[in-house]
Amino acid sequence: MSTTEQRVAVVTGAARGIGAATAVRLAAEGRAVAVIDLDEAACADTVARIAAAGGTALAVGCDVSDEAAVEAAVARIAGELGPPVVLVNNAGVLRDNLLFRMSAADWDTVMNVHLRGAFLMTRACQEHMVDAGFGRIVNLSSSSALGNRGQANYAAAKAGLQGLTKTLAKELGKFGVTANAVAPGFIATDMTAATAERVGMGFEEFKAAAATRIPVQRVGEPEDIANAIAFFTGDAAGFVSGQVLYVAGGPLD
Known about the structure:
- By secondary structure, the protein is of the alpha/beta class.
- It folds into two domains: 8-185 and 225-239, NAD(P)-binding Rossmann-like Domain (Rossmann fold), CATH 3.40.50; 186-219, no CATH class.
- It has eight helices and seven strands, in the order βαβαβαβαβαβαααβ.
- The chain has helices spanning 17-28, 44-52, 67-80, 104-132, 152-172, 190-198, 203-211, 222-233, and strands at 8-12, 32-37, 57-61, 84-89, 135-140, 177-184, 244-247.
- Strands 3-2-1-4-5-6-7 form a seven-stranded parallel beta sheet, sandwiched between helices.
- α4 (104-132) runs parallel beside α5.
- The longest helix has 29 residues, at 104-132.
- The chain is globular.
């Protein structure tokens, strides 16, 4: 693929939060972006932001844990935008609870969206990357991969994504494809707002308390993560693969 061609990027979970910020950032860098979320209509705001800035975007509704839906979505993207050679596996859900209260369904839901979803999306897109001789895969891990009370499912899934990332780097490197992971710390999103509500705190109070524990003395914004993802997806990052970058405002204990 010529570098003058507009590369196609796929961002899952891109209706809001980190996914939306990433889609907007990648579009600003000249990529055509497929904006994927469970509800296609929910992608409209992200697509509109990209279009208003002069970019190209396509809203795609897809349950990333559904094999047939993923295959159909990637085929549609390839047909309407072109072969997807940049993939950001960002789709995620929370089903937090202490282990003794956690249901098997809550465990399975988190595993299916985070891990199965990343596997299915990557498997569907890698053929296009290999054919192009260029590919960039970024998986969203989390600081919770190091262990976090009340998140046995989420922590296990996010740690699993790091193992997936390193394996993809080894398998696909010879085809010009890199795979890296970004592990956010505390980021102000709807997901962290839901966590605040779960523990009975106002979101502003919750963010302020979190900031006191972060060396840079603020919580992260979705754009902070989009910046890191943008680096990994660029041409200049071709010799960086199999890495996990914690974007958390400081070192994690």
